[in-house]
Input
Amino acid sequence: MIIIVSQWKQKLLRLAVAVLIILVFSAAIPLVTGQLYHRIPAIGGWLDEEHPSGNPLRVENEKESSQYDQIMDQFVIKLQNFYYEERE
Output
């Protein structure tokens, strides 16, 4: 039995283009992610494996806090104290 498909060349071309687009996107996503690994830490963190230390309340200080971080911490503490005193 022979199946006759009308306009088979156009349909085959559309299928090939669709497969090509899917292949291009599936190859481009890892390349773009690899290039952005060092520039955008949020994307780079997706690929890193985290090994649990066994302590659920652990705090990891990977870098020393800067003066800006210390000032912001002091500001947040003062702001919390202000709102806490206002409630009383």
User: Anything to note?
Assistant: The chain has a mean pLDDT of 79. The two ends are 89 Å apart (CA to CA). The CA atoms of residues 6 and 32 lie 40 Å apart.
